[in-house]
Write a structure and sequence with these properties.
The structure is a homotetramer of 249-residue chains. Chain A has a nine-stranded mixed sheet. Chain A is of the alpha/beta class. Chain A contains seven helices and nine strands. The radius of gyration of chain A is 18 Å and the shape is globular. In chain A, a hairpin with a 2-residue loop joins strand 8 and strand 9.
Amino acid sequence: MNAEGPIRVTVWGEGLEQRRPEVARIYPDGIHEAVAEALRDELGLDGDVRTAQLSEHEHGLRTEVLAQTDVLAWWGHSAHDEVADVVAERVVQQVLDGMGLVVLHSAHLSKPFLSLMGTRCTLRWRNADEREIVWVVAPAHPIAEGLSEAIVIPEHEMYGEYFDVPSPDELVFISSFDGGEVFRSGCCWTRGKGRVFYFSPGHETQPVYRQPEIRRVLANAARWTRRRSSPIDTASSPNSPAGWLESHG
Amino acid sequence: MNAEGPIRVTVWGEGLEQRRPEVARIYPDGIHEAVAEALRDELGLDGDVRTAQLSEHEHGLRTEVLAQTDVLAWWGHSAHDEVADVVAERVVQQVLDGMGLVVLHSAHLSKPFLSLMGTRCTLRWRNADEREIVWVVAPAHPIAEGLSEAIVIPEHEMYGEYFDVPSPDELVFISSFDGGEVFRSGCCWTRGKGRVFYFSPGHETQPVYRQPEIRRVLANAARWTRRRSSPIDTASSPNSPAGWLESHG
Amino acid sequence: MNAEGPIRVTVWGEGLEQRRPEVARIYPDGIHEAVAEALRDELGLDGDVRTAQLSEHEHGLRTEVLAQTDVLAWWGHSAHDEVADVVAERVVQQVLDGMGLVVLHSAHLSKPFLSLMGTRCTLRWRNADEREIVWVVAPAHPIAEGLSEAIVIPEHEMYGEYFDVPSPDELVFISSFDGGEVFRSGCCWTRGKGRVFYFSPGHETQPVYRQPEIRRVLANAARWTRRRSSPIDTASSPNSPAGWLESHG
Amino acid sequence: MNAEGPIRVTVWGEGLEQRRPEVARIYPDGIHEAVAEALRDELGLDGDVRTAQLSEHEHGLRTEVLAQTDVLAWWGHSAHDEVADVVAERVVQQVLDGMGLVVLHSAHLSKPFLSLMGTRCTLRWRNADEREIVWVVAPAHPIAEGLSEAIVIPEHEMYGEYFDVPSPDELVFISSFDGGEVFRSGCCWTRGKGRVFYFSPGHETQPVYRQPEIRRVLANAARWTRRRSSPIDTASSPNSPAGWLESHG
């Protein structure tokens, strides 16, 4: 267990995808449960993992829940618009105040991610069963720890460039696909006091979150994004009438 | 004149600040006119500069105006909330499509900048007449071209860290103030196909935009941010059913 | 012609590769002449392009030549070790003083590039005739100006990750290969007052530098890296006994 | 104790500075011993800290020592040239293979740092007893953990811009001085598989390394830079004749 206590993770999902038989075969309880299970296994005593989903009151993301969340993992696809603006905005504010955010696969178009990026977050895609090779391009980065040179996903949906996001502060993974496309598949940003990691693997009809290396990435990402306390308050622009030093020195 | 023709610049201001006598003494026609004059002088035949202000229909920023603007310079302070959401959003979309944006001084809290950054953009400030030294920390950057090691602003309002913005893609200037504060006063970002430059000098009660080195920075920033055409369309996530190469190769 | 006068480019090559018949068929006068021709065609009046090669006195890179060079383009492969240390160091010092450096293909292991990067610059490779797709991942970057979404090189040697270079300040291109590899094929760095661009296309047995899009990239890179004057002197650590402001203000 | 076992830190110093009485009063056993003591106190069971100095055989940095070092902290000032090239190069190679490097104060001109940066690493300086304020500009960064908005060093030598280093991958601290200078005083880079942190506080005639916040930064830096194992081998450019996937998939 790390010195700060276990990482409190909330895994959010739509909870709708498993209604489709081809998804239910792989993820009978929904993707959020599979991601949560991976994080529980990988983090062990370092993690304290719960789940939340769209159908819950306030989508399971009441203020008290988020205030006690160190890392929010978010998977969404077909119901981005059904997330209430007030909840999406609450997530954004928590990130700016230090909560980590792990954005998974099709959540590149989720409301919190769009707001934090400030861009369109569009990409090229193809429903396919193509081999994806996820290459490590930052071997010193904690999110790549324990991995080999690349992760091979035998069959996956294609996501390709141009991915309309701000240039990542750190680029950890680049993927290739059989069709010749490339994709910045593991991207790090800091927004306010919070850290954001986008990881593209995880289409609902392929058992990506059952793959050991992918599960390792999820756990690494939880460790890297976890909330850190900071005394800096960014809620408003403080007036320092007498000089900072005079009042603090 | 550069090969692409003159840079079409629109300088936007609130047009309210000059109602205060202490501002009118320095900027009788408003800050936007002073910035426009600086750009006209500095860019010469390379520039085609017009102005727009809050009181105009759609704040002078109709779709046709923005579509023919290569760089939008924006100064605002007391009336951020009076800018219509639809106009602010239009500016953001134009930036994502390639228009440059030069954000001046207190426009760090303007709607377009907040949306493009995704953070709170708060900072520390003090109404003062303190010496600001604007140090060049990227001597190879085009925005620093023609400058000496530092620009001294004899008297200026203090803006200090922590400045709650995403880590700039390129940091060109860092300022110090008599009170001991520091500030990342010249910051570059790319958002979508557009370039954004934030430059903090320019409080309304001090004649900062009359200073030759500051005017040079404005012109350099216009050149650096100017719209570039790109065939990449980010309006939506394109489906590539048959593979990009099959349809383009 | 731009305001600063034509860009003075020196294209350096080993001048050895055309001894091999399969190279001579494509580049009878050596690669440096093909690159120079491309730059002459593309830059027109904006360029003043000469060449230099290994066999010349001081490899054609005497101090006076470099002092009058705004951009040095460098292609090398089999004779990195034959470049005199004193000349390599001279190139490095010129870059730190503002000269641009465009490093082509197998010059990733050239002495000047290794010294400026500080890392091993190793990569994965395969002699092959594979399709390379060079994707634009920074559509707002001047080096991508005028390009489409991607450049297709019908047959090329494979260069793949992990590429052991410092994380680029700006990443412009990512390539994919038939074997599933990816590569950061267009990378920008600033070192001192000089700009460095590495561009991986250009194996000697394939006519890559005859391809129009590749030639456009070369010209864009020359424009982006061209020397800019800066009054900042980095030759030594200056002592400021009385304070910078006292002596400059 | 963290999961990976204690961080094995070697603190290197010249061991010469304490011959001067004004230094001996503050650091009777040399600066390396003060830094080591700080790290022992702060890391507790998470650290395993030893020291080495110039006068030892191979400066105390034999291959076996470095191979068992997770983080090397380096303070040097008057004797940079006395460090054997072979030892400096050994340090560089270890960093590229994953060892962390914490470069302190005047070690900006040490051989390993110069080699890893590729630039001149010059800066502006003034022997003075001026107040330095070290501002946090990356509150989410682990190296700033546990700090307030700024660290005030009551009296310190001045280091100012332009600091001729590659733009840091992450900028954690910016300092101001009474003379109006600014300095990027806490900078992060990755080189190969190793992480490098430069931290400018620590002139030998002022008791900077006795200050609690400075000691906290040293410990945070040790945690952030500590060696991580990676299976990627960068010793040479591997030929992948049959494709990576064929041999690994």
